[in-house]
Amino acid sequence: MGSSPPPSKRRRKDEGVDDVSSPVVVLAHGAGAPSSSDWMIKWKDMLGKALQAVEVVTFDYPYISGGKRKAPPKAEKLVEFHADVVRKTVARYPGHPLILAGKSMGSRVSCMVACEEDIAASAVLCLGYPLKGTNGAVRDELLLQLTVPIMFVQGSKDGLCPLEKLEAVRKTMKSVNELHVIDGGDHSFKIAKKHLQTKETTQGEVEDLAVQAIAAFVSSSVG
Questions:
Q1: Is the pTM of this model over 0.85?
Q2: 76-85 contacts: CB < 8 A, separation 24 or more?
Q3: Residue 66: what pLDDT?
Q4: In what order do the strands lie in the sheet with 24-28?
Q5: Cα–Cα distances in angstroms (integers) from residue 169 to residues 90, 97, 123, 142, 178, in the given order
Q6: pLDDT in tens, 70-98
Q7: pLDDT tens, 184-222?
C-alpha cells in the first residue's frame, strides 16, 4: 500500500482522467453495519468506478467504531463527527467536486451535513432513504430544507420509504431531485430470486443500472 501512488495521480496517468474534475465522495454507513460491511465495500467500489472518483472515503461513526455494537444515537448527534470527516476530506482534495452519499441513516446525516454553511456539496446521493421514522411519521422537514441536488435510489419494497410518500415529498422540494427505483428491492436493494427470474435479470445487472443513473445525475450536477 505504502508504495502505490496517490489515487489522483494514478488515475491521471492510467486513465487520462481530468484530475480536478473528478469528484471526491464521502460515503456514510447505515445504522446497523459499519463501513467494513460487504454492502459498503461493494458500493464504495461501484461508486468509485462509475463516478471516476479521485477517492471514495468511508468511515465509522463513533458508536459503532472498533467493533462496538451500541444502538445508534439520533441522526442529529452524528452531524458534527460526519461534517468533520467531510471537512478533512475536502482539505485533502481541494478543488474536487464534493459528493455526499449514504446508506439509510447515513443518507439522512449526509443531508444534514449538506445544510452546514461551510460545506459546499455538489450533490447528495441517498441510498435507501429512511423517510418513515420509528413512529411511522413521514420525516420530510430536512428534505424540504435542502438546496443541493439530491438523488434517491430506493427499493420498491422498502418499507421505510413508501414510494408514493416520497413522490409527494419530491414535488414540494426546493432542490433538483431525481429518483431511481430498484424494482423488487428491499431497504438494502436485495431482490428475491423469483422476482429476478421473472424479470430475466440479475442482482448485479440491476445494481449496475442504478449506478449508471447515479453517474448521469452526478455528471449533470457537477457539470
A1: yes
A2: 76/112, 78/109, 79/109, 79/112, 79/113, 79/116, 82/28, 82/109, 82/110, 82/112, 82/113, 83/113, 83/116, 83/119, 85/26, 85/57, 85/59
A3: 85
A4: 55-58, 24-28, 98-103, 123-127, 150-155, 177-182
A5: 30, 27, 18, 11, 12
A6: 889 999 999 999 999 999 999 999 999 99
A7: 999 999 999 999 999 999 999 999 999 999 999 999 998
d(CA 160, CA 163): 9
Side chain identity at residue 38, one-letter code: D
Residue type, 51: L
Three cell numbers at 154? Answer: 430506493
Nearest one of 201, 23, 10 to 125, comparing CA atoms: 23
Written as nine digits, the cell of 113 is 451535513
Task: Write out the chain in H/E/C secondary structure.
Answer: CCCCCCHHHHHHHHHCCCHHHCCEEEEECCCCCCCCCHHHHHHHHHHHHHCCCCEEEECCCCCCHHHCCCCCCCHHHHHHHHHHHHHHHHHHCCCCCEEEEEECHHHHHHHHHHCCCCCCCCEEEEECCCCECCCCCECCHHHHHCCCCEEEEEECCCCCCCHHHHHHHHHHCCCCEEEEEECCECCCCCECHHHHHHHCCCHHHHHHHHHHHHHHHHHHHHC
Q: 52, exposed or middle or buried, with CB in 10 Å at 0-12, 13-18, 19+?
A: middle
Q: Give the separation between CA 121 and CA 105, rounded to whole angstroms.
A: 18
Length of the chain: 223
